[in-house]
Amino acid sequence: MKKIIIIGAGAMGSAFAVPCLENQNEVTLVGTHLEDNLINNIQSNNNLHPALNIELSSKLKVEKFKKLKSILEEGVDIIVAGVSSVGIEWFVKQIASTYKKNLPIILLTKGLAVEENELITLSDKIKKLLKEKGHGDVNISAIKGPCLAAGLAYKMRTGTVIANPDIKETEKLKKIISTNYYSTEVSDDLTGIELSGAIKNIYSMLIGASEGLSNSKAPKEIQSKYYLNTSASLIHRSISEMVEFVSFYGGRADTVYGLAGLGDLYVSAIGGRNSLMGKYLGEGYLYKEAKEKFMKNITVEGAQLALEIGPKILQDLNSKHFPLMFSMLNTICENKKLEIKW
């Protein structure tokens, strides 16, 4: 039995508690400083999570942010980052004072960052921030793959991949969290896994735009019935670009063809927030217009990532090799109409 703390009570962090509990671990879910109302809601409704629409196990300890420091001071075996990408610095600030040498951190968060004009993964960002706090030996693993939170919470059969440069560490974690419905592969390509898991959000917006891009002159009824030819073309080219992207920034090409790349792209492309935004962009809406009109209070991870890394990508890469990526970056960052150079 391991003592696991999950920081961030959103859908994915909360769903991840399900397989962790299944393995007889002691699991505590702690909300961020912005989630007190959410925690109150869960605690007062028999652990019913409003986003997942499911009652989480009564064995799960659910606590507010004010308890976080004392829980960490008491000692834990694994820290799980279930915050959004914009909360990574906040996450490090919370764990820095109690972090012990090589204490396992599991990163659920998907995203990338630009630091000192260099594109880096979130695990690299955490290491850098903890190093600034005096921690030289940091042990971070990332879990990525086609895992919709509600599906995991309902124990739908799910496959993900755990990545750490030390493959022995991934094997340890696999034994701690795997169940008969939550199967985990292992990889030592931490960089490739994180790159794949992040940029698939951008490409899923492109694939989501398939209907509108299929034939702008055809009626919407025809587009909605016969857009799959277009979708298939976009999926093929998206994977090709993802392979080049991941290879350029230091990951392995074969990683893209696995769960963190192709698998996760499939889940995101057939439904979800990124795909929905893509649908509006494919219909001719500008990004800011679509965001304000249809998705004002909804986080679109792919768009956030494009705004975060777009200027750096446009600087680093050759547009001839990444026509889809550049089209979407210009659409989001410059608020231009989505156009594909077929």
TrEMBL record:
Enzyme class name:
oxidoreductase
Query: Where in the numbering of this chain does the Glycerol-3-phosphate dehydrogenase NAD-dependent C-terminal domain appear?
Result: 189-337
Keywords for this protein: Lipid biosynthesis, Lipid metabolism, NAD, Oxidoreductase, Phospholipid biosynthesis, Phospholipid metabolism, Signal
Q: Which residues form the signal peptide?
A: 1-17
Residue intervals passing through the bilayer: none
EC number(s) from the headed UniProt entry: 1.1.1.94
InterPro entries xrefs? 6-PGluconate_DH-like_C_sf (IPR008927), 6PGD_dom2 (IPR013328), G3P_DH_NAD-dep (IPR006168), G3P_DH_NAD-dep_C (IPR006109), G3P_DH_NAD-dep_N (IPR011128), NAD(P)-bd_dom_sf (IPR036291)
Task: Look up the domain of life of the source.
Answer: Bacteria
| Catalytic function, reaction form | sn-glycerol 3-phosphate + NADP(+) = dihydroxyacetone phosphate + NADPH + H(+)
Q: What Pfam family does this protein match (any one)?
A: NAD_Gly3P_dh_C
Which residues does the UniProt record annotate as the domain Glycerol-3-phosphate dehydrogenase NAD-dependent N-terminal? Answer: 3-167
Q: State the Gene3D superfamilies in the record.
A: N-(1-d-carboxylethyl)-l-norvaline Dehydrogenase, domain 2, NAD(P)-binding Rossmann-like Domain
Q: Which family does it belong to?
A: Belongs to the NAD-dependent glycerol-3-phosphate dehydrogenase family.
Protein name in the entry:
Glycerol-3-phosphate dehydrogenase
What organism is this sequence from?
Pelagibacter ubique
Lineage runs:
Bacteria, Pseudomonadati, Pseudomonadota, Alphaproteobacteria, Candidatus Pelagibacterales
